[in-house]
## 1
Amino acid sequence: MILLQATQQTMLRTSSGVPGRNINYLSDNQNKQALNSLLTSYSLYSVIDFPTRIHNNSNTMIDNIFINTLKNENYSVYSLINGLSDHDAQVLSLSDIIVPDDRNELYSCREISTHLLNEFQTSLSYEAWENVFSDNDTNTTFNNFLNTFIRTFNASFPKKRTKLRQNSKAWLTTGIKTSCNNKRKLYLLYRESNDPNLKIYYKNYCKILSKVITVFSSL
């Protein structure tokens, strides 16, 4: 609801007459004041105070984080250059928050495979369904069908208790990490430079790295 109201108000206030949703928080403008007024009514305040998009001589702050600073007084926020676009990431760190450790918690799951699905269909075909066709009451017929279906389903796909699998990302080798760091360094050079050759080199480097990650992550 908050985002919907913010979007509707922002679309009504544009300097060019064309609806837009990007609000640069580095400058005072009517859209910024309207959005702040709306979010303040929900006790949400902007915590970003640095440019989030830097390209050549252009600095803007159109990426933002809004939190209830009255309930979260101990926080820190900083920019993270991800090398994925000219928009830097924002990292928000909240203190005094207890995050439950669910690594040893058991979860219920069902194993569903082609073999078990075939067995499930076979079990349904063995049912006589007499209690479904012998009654004229629609509700009773449906309940009888549903009970038989659920009983067969539970028998074919019993619940199992298991621990949550941890994603180890074994494919993320030291070489890939080093290449990702080099990509970020190249990006910093690329966005501050007007050299077309550097732009071509950076894009080719990204393509090669992307192919390598795709191959290794599929192993």
## 2
Amino acid sequence: MSIDLADRPAGLMIGAASVLMTVALVFHPMAEPGSPAQVLSQIAAARLVDGIVHGTIIGLYILLLAGFARFAARLGLDRPETVLGFACLALACVAVLGATLLDGFVTPDLAVRLADADPGRIEAAATVMLLVSTAIQDLTKLALVLQAAATIAWSLPLLTADRRGTGVVGIGAGVLLLAIILGANPRLMPHLLIGVLAIQGAWNLCVAALLLGWGTTREALDKQPG
């Protein structure tokens, strides 16, 4: 079975990004419950860490998108499910960009600007922060649903190739992810988010393994059973 050396960098990008994504989330700052003024003060104090964590996440999603672009090409862009999967992941990256900008940059910047505000302004700002928090949650859920859909779409071609097991794992992971995400109502808590990314990351690592040389080529994908 032939190996295309161009696949190896893509596999490394997907593998590294998937592992580092979970690590980055471990360092995600969390504000303790308190009054609006106390919460804003905590968010303002964690501004630098917030920026580093969310900036890293944006960079890692760029790596994921680049790596999966190669994977989609290897599956065959003439396959509708392959194009659908890539479109889902691309839209997921847009949703992640929105969520990370709001969570890691807009929210801390607002907190810093309101650090010395009078109580009346802080109370009014609490409503704005609630709206921003809700937008972050919804964008994050949208991104994860789109990623799960991409996983399912990309697993379909593998079912007719010599990597049928990877395809079954991908479909199972995608369905499980959709069930978890859509059932997380109303908030997707950090521990649940890490679990979701761990499941998604397991599939990503399977794809990374394929691209690193243990996987399938387009010729193998064209081998139909029988």
## 3
Amino acid sequence: MNIKISIVLLLALQVSCEYAPKIIHDYKKPDVVEITNQKHVNESFDTIWYRLVKNLTKSFFSINHIDKQSRVISLNFSITNPNDLFICGHSTIYYKDIKSKCETYIFNDADDSRYRKLFDSNDLFRPLTTRKMSLNGVINYYLEPVDDGTNIIVNVRYVIKKDESFYYNSGSGYGYERNMTDFCTMNTGSFCIMDYMTCRPTGKFEHELLTYCEENPSNYKYELYKPDKPNKLDREDMDICKEKLDISSQSRR
């Protein structure tokens, strides 16, 4: 009798494992980007200083501190759609639900996106997650007078918020998580230890901030770095998903 019960339990366990949801995450770290955050201008310190202050007062930045004697200007900023100012790599998520239906999610990690939750205590129901990215931080200018003009240095402290909201199909309700990371112009930042993302600046912001020392910064044109946009889901992706998750070609009866 005990042998029969053990066999039944073993078969039940085998079936439950066969049809349990599976998830695989392929992540590519962001490419290294060359960033220019300083320049030399063949104009006097006073000329550059007053022009910079004038242009910044017309911008959306909040001026936190100005001190001509120490040659420092400090600004605060907040941006709700910042995905061209930093990059966080690229993700492909393969997910199989309990009915062996395969889903593939492909996105740039700096963008707002939707995907199946990667880390969860309930492995039977991976909730569909909606991610929103936002950015705030501090900008510091330093102006240095030299014999033949002025050296301008700008550094940015990036503070990224990653808000994730999700709904459990099992009926256990909604969930919400917020993670944050911060880094400066020449550095990278990572989220909490259970997260995978590494972020770095694209260099666009620093390049744009240096143009505020010009007469017409809004007319300045530069080459904007943008990561490749992921391809749309196609049949090949579905085949890869099934191969990754080892799904049988025969449907479940």
## 4
Amino acid sequence: MVGTIDNDDGMVCLTDEDRVRTEREHHAYSVYKNLLESFGLMDFENLNNQNVSPVGKFTLTSDDYPDHYGGAYIGDNGDLVIHTPIDVSRSKETIQDIVRTSQFSLKQSPYSYKRLLQIKEGIRQFHLENTENPICMNITAYGISDYDNNVFVEMELLHDEQIVLFKERISDFPGIVFKQGGRAVPFATVQPHEVVTKNSGVSESTVGYRANAVGIEGFIMSGHAARAKNQVIKLVNGTEVGTVIGWQNSGSVDAAFVQAKSSVTLSNVVKGTTTTLSSSIATPVSKASFYFAGMIAGIKNGTIGAIDVDMKVGGVPLTNLFASAIITKPGDSGGPCYTTSGSSRNIFGINVGSNDHFSVFCKASNIVESFRATPF
């Protein structure tokens, strides 16, 4: 996206070319969403619709993906590009029947997403069972690149002997690409982009979004910043705004749900802007544009990279994160990442941390699954 940040409302001022691409990207996201829901993923946009009973899974496994699907990403023109390891003409007919549109592109690629996910799950299993193994200790992150149709493994020491050991002990799958990596650092009103101040047991960080957990109103913030349940959360001016009643910094979630005090007014307007976050969750898709709001970063626009990354952040192994090349800083943790396309600003997730190469984010869908706390 070429547009520039408008200082008055924090939004991006788009060129005519950007507007056309944004409209196409919005359509591409709908195609992607329909495709994943056909595989069994839950329709997250209807989580708060009382007239619709949620069906499907929060997270798909390798068994859910069909053999003809190899991953997808948003192309340069804004259309969805879908990898397929089988005959393109045969796959196109199958996918058209599912999404009921021909506005997407197919790309012949060597691997199915099912196979890529099986390889990633194998790496994860070895990692969990051998945490003190020097091979595992040298791995800083790994995941699936939907754009490149491969599995990537990042290493702190990227030497030939380390790669040979990995292939001998873990996997010699030809679709693994090895890269230089670095250790991730966790960053530690109420409204999105509000600052939570340091106090006993709590790190300074950024508020994500307001949420409702079975009738309890509050907001989502960083889990590693909140540290634990029952922590009292304060703003910079010292005002107590709530208490942590839901907390997780493990698995696929680094988040906390804070029950707001009755005297607190909750807003979903991103602080310093006129942008209002919607009550809907968005599923990350590779190469999709997004906005991010962080205490240090301010309002940034970027592009989603890999959508299934496992990474140690502050020494804690986290799974099923999504990544972006934008670099966030200490204090940005918990800040919301949300859509740019369409009229609504649906929530992708919140910031977890960053290394020298990319930032990682916790998916909002995984937060909902953990706390049953949905945006409102």
